[in-house]
Amino acid sequence: MADLAAFIQGMPKAELHIHIEGSLEPEMMLALARRNGVTLRYASEAALRAAYRFGNLQDFLDLYYEGMSVLRQEQDFYDLAMAYLRRAAGQNVRHAEIFFDPQGHTSRGVAFKIVIDGLWRALEDAERQLGMTTGLILCFLRHLDEADADKTLDHALPWRDRLIGVGLDSSEKGNPPSRFQRVFARARELGLKAVAHAGEEGPPQYVREALDLLRVDRIDHGNRALEDDELTRRLVRERMPLTVCPLSNLRLCGVPSLDVHPLERMLQLGLRATVNSDDPAYFGGYVGENYLAVQQALGLDRAEIVTLARNGFEASFIDDALKRRYLAALDDYGRTAG
Ligand code: HPA
Ligand code: ZN
User: Fold this and answer.
1) What does 61-97 look like in DSSP terms, one character per residue?
2) What's the whole-model pTM score?
3) Which protein residues touch ligand 1 with a CB less than 6 Å away?
4) Rounded mean pLDDT of 171-183?
């Protein structure tokens, strides 16, 4: 296939693992810092980009929380989400399920309402103007305690209908899913879906806890599950989706290079892997760049690319009728494109 890059660009895609605060590009970060009178340690785009060298997840998170401190007003959250949604639509992302980290904002005195109103207005405009579908997933920060997560879920109750699910993110090592069993049970009783970052840096046991104790519908990342054959067989058997983020894994040193990334092995094992961008402004690419990078590094063929995209729609939280529509559009594209 001569031009897999064009094929990937035009392919209808779903994105299921994107932290909206991780789509804050340096240019917007500096503009919002000026608009809101926030002082950053970095004075220019070049200085910021030069700081985007991470040895592990925590190195990144330190900068990620500092970066999001420029977000203060409803309009900031709107601008942030709209910029992501426009870029995603430009790469033919038809459906996006978007994480946000309310505790990263409420802890700085920004009210939950400001965050959710800004994001929600952008999602509504994107659905109308860009013809895509969207959903919001509230993530709990796992370096904080369960009482803080509980309080955050309380804050969200008036806007329950704006959420499709809850997630668990931030520093994984030493913060096992077991610490958040009760708040996840509460969220599930509210009818919310559940996802959790597990096996990004943490051991296979954390993936097991996410399944057994949090009863998740998807695992975010999940790479380290492959260290455990019995767990891997279970994930295959249960058709558990994994939201894999190749460029993130590379930039956070989860893999030394993309040609040894486990994505192809995941597909060969029959795991339901999907491709996502995680924090595109920090990791060097949006979902299209992630597809292209693994296609090139692993030599994926067109059928494998389409399988990854199909997994994305199948693993999404949209209703079955819409899912069938997206899958039919993808099949059509696979048959007729290029
Ligand atoms: N892992 C954990 N927490 C995060 C990430 C991630 O990749 N991005 C934003 N919060
Ligand atoms: Zn993530």
Assistant:
1) HHHHHHHHTT--SHHHHHHHHHHHHHHHHHTTEEEEE
2) 0.98
3) 19, 22, 57, 64, 169-170, 197, 200, 248, 278-279
4) 98
